[in-house]
Design brief:
The structure holds two protein chains of two kinds.
Chain A (H helix, E strand, L loop, with lengths): L3 H6 L2 H26 L3 H18 L7 E3 L1 H14 L1 H20 L11 H23 L4 H20 L5 H16 L28 H33 L5 H17 L5 E3 L1 H9 L5 H22 L4 H15 L4 H7 L2 H17 L2 H20 L3 E5 L2 E8 L4 H10 L6 E11 L2 H16 L3 E5 L3 H9 L8
Parallel strand pairs in A: 4-5, 5-6
Antiparallel strand pairs in A: 1-2, 3-4
Chain B lengths: L3 E5 L4 H14 L6 E9 L3 H8 L2 H11 L1 H9 L4 E8 L1 H12 L3 E5 L5 H7 L2 H8 L4 E4 L1
Parallel strand pairs in B: 1-2, 1-4, 2-3, 4-5
The chains are: A alpha/beta, B alpha/beta.
């Protein structure tokens, strides 16, 4: 890994430029995710500022962008709706504490056990949920709303062909906001949904009673937020690792996310995590080091202080259009091919993850269910043995252990054998435990009763050891 | 002769034809080396990481795309090495070729994605325009 000096100052020009681009692209997203969570836009903007600022120092993956995200916003919806903002700040702090504990316990290693299928399901359901969250803001409001959403989409997809330096969503926002102000059309604006205050965030203790009851309320949300935040952050760090051809500290990132969330909670922000889209934009714009993340956070705050008045005038349909673009970018479009080509079990795990998330509106439940389901599929898969008959030779394929012995015995019970001796070939199999040895013995007895001698061949040395430990009961000795 | 030949490869049919031409040129002299360059596209990073799980698996998947070319060079007993870069294919190949001061660059005329080509223009065209060394585009 690079030295700390390299991580900070190895790419000053590229980092400053890309940080500015990211800050510009972050504004609409931070606002939109605040609206999804049901809080004032400032909560998401403050969170994006503190997350980026702290992660620049505490993160494990230089060049990765963390801020307020859709995945986290979706999890906190019921908490904000039922208990209010102060509980959200307390939950954010607790989220950070849980993530630091995960980091210390080296939980990033466990992330390797999250199968691809679950990860693909995660991003797909995230995209679907963000899209569903936009529906109330543009369906059945007015014709002009549809028109503005459509124009926004056309702009964000065609502009990048001609203008590469300034992010297309920002150009779309500025032009369409100006048009909306001067053309006197009836459109809902961000100001209708919340307020923007042009002040720096300040340190505040969440106004919640310090009681067991509070903990009972916030803990389930904090745990979900901690899991979702780490899943998205570790996926993002893998993507940044790949794009930059470098490695990063995954457990360090988990701790960094925790520290950033604690600070964010104390400064009146909502829990956040790494963002796939923004991190890709950062690397593509030349960002590689910690400086890029720091500049993104600082410049974002600067823009809010300067432009706060104008932000409230942004028409909602424009923001909706940008969020639809974010959904399209988040969704894994190769999933359709995956559903056809991937093994059945993987396809089912992916679909189940998506269905559970869309059903429960909770990404963490989806991830956990997906992991459990694929673990079950894995056990089922390794607990089936296949037996192929070639003349008098029976070739066993698969692992022979407590979970697979039933199928093994059943096969030999039901088969009709004419000859006096048969061979059971273990070259593609292994006997793992006493149950496996027992099953083999049982088959030998079963066939012995019918006057058939069994010869066991091609046992590998671990299997022989297991049999020898049981005192050479099998005739293979 | 051309000592350091850069072959831009993307796993397409065209890249294999380009490899054959590069092999012909390299075989003219004993000290020629072909550097097979594959650019892992930034646009595909998210999808590739999602579908591969570990970085080792992803690396193997990328090397597999160059398998036929490597085989060809082994059969023809041509010195070669493989370099995997990360970026946007056209500009990244140009940057690398100019930085390494290669003697010749060989590219296929058409890559994998015809739709993208229609929208953005072809990689080979970009390379031809901006590279500082002689370039051979293979049809």
């Amino acid at each position: 890994m690079q030295s700390l000096k390299q991580q900070w100052f190895g790419n000053i020009r590229g980092d400053i430029l890309s940080g500015i681009v990211v800050a510009l692209a972050l504004i609409p997203e931070a606002i939109a995710f605040s609206i999804i969570a049901g809080v004032d836009p400032m909560i998401g903007l403050y969170a994006s500022f503190t997350m980026a600022l702290i992660i620049a120092f505490a993160g494990g993956r230089p060049g990765m962008i963390s801020a307020a995200t859709g995945a986290m916003a979706l999890v906190m919806v019921p908490l904000v709706r039922d208990y209010g903002l102060e509980y959200l700040f307390a939950a954010t702090i607790l989220t950070g504490i849980i993530q630091i504990i995960f980091g210390i316990l080296k939980i990033a290693k466990l992330m390797k056990f999250i199968p691809n299928a679950v990860m693909i399901g995660f991003v797909n359901s995230l995209a679907i949920l963000i899209f569903l969250a936009q529906v109330p803001h543009f369906i059945g409001i007015s014709t002009i709303t549809y028109v503005f959403v459509a124009i926004t989409l056309v702009l964000v997809y065609t502009l990048p062909r001609f203008i590469k330096v300034i992010p297309a969503p920002l150009i779309a926002i500025i032009t369409l906001t100006v048009i909306a102000i001067f053309s006197d059309v009836e459109l809902r604006t961000i100001g209708d949904l919340g307020t923007i205050t042009q002040t720096l965030p300040s340190f505040i203790l969440p106004k919640v009673p310090l009681s067991l009851e509070t903990l009972q309320i916030i803990f389930p949300f904090s745990l979900s937020l901690a899991i979702v935040g780490l899943v998205e952050s570790l996926l993002t760090s893998q993507i940044v690792d790949d794009m930059t051809g470098t490695e990063s500290n995954k457990n360090g990132e988990a701790r960094g996310q925790g520290i950033a969330n604690i600070v964010t909670g104390f400064f009146g922000g909502m829990a956040g995590c790494a963002m796939i889209g923004q991190s890709v934009i950062n690397v593509k714009s030349g960002g590689r080091g910690r400086l890029s993340t720091l500049v993104a956070g600082l410049f974002l705050m600067f823009l809010i202080l300067v432009l706060g008045d104008l932000v409230v005038k942004i028409p909602m349909p424009v923001l909706v259009g940008i969020m639809i673009m974010v959904c399209i970018g988040t969704f894994d479009w190769s999933s359709f091919k995956y559903l056809v080509k991937a093994p059945r079990a993987d396809a089912i795990v992916m679909l189940t993850t998506v269905i559970i998330v869309v059903w429960t509106h909770n990404l963490s439940i989806g991830v956990i269910s997906g992991v459990i389901l694929s673990a079950i599929f894995f056990v089922v898969k390794i607990s089936t043995v296949k037996i192929q008959q070639e003349g008098n030779r029976f070739i066993v394929e698969g692992q022979l252990f407590f979970a697979s012995t039933e199928g093994f015995i059943k096969y030999f019970k039901n088969i009709d054998i004419q000859s006096k001796t048969i061979q059971i070939d273990f070259s593609n199999s292994r006997i793992w435990d006493d149950s496996g040895v027992g099953a083999l013995l049982k088959v030998e007895e079963l066939l012995g009763d019918k006057g058939i001698t069994v010869e066991v061949i091609e046992l590998d040395s671990p299997s022989k050891k297991v049999i020898a430990k049981l005192g050479g009961m099998s005739s293979s000795h | 002769m051309y000592k350091h030949i850069l072959l831009a490869a993307d796993g397409s049919e065209n890249a294999i034809r380009a490899a054959k031409e590069a092999a012909k040129i390299a075989s003219c002299s004993n000290d020629s080396i072909i550097e097979v360059v594959y650019v892992a596209d930034f646009e595909k990073a998210k999808t590739e990481v999602l579908h591969s799980g570990t970085s080792e698996a992803l690396n193997i998947a990328r090397r597999k795309k160059l398998q036929l070319i490597e085989q060809l060079f082994k059969e023809e007993k041509i010195q070669y090495k493989v370099t995997i870069l990360h970026g946007t294919p056209g500009p990244e190949i140009v940057r690398y070729a100019n930085e390494q001061k290669v003697d010749l660059i060989v590219v296929g005329s058409r890559g994998l994605n015809s739709l993208q080509e229609m929208v953005l223009g072809s990689v080979s065209h970009k390379v031809m325009k901006r590279v500082n060394c002689p370039a051979l585009v293979v049809k």
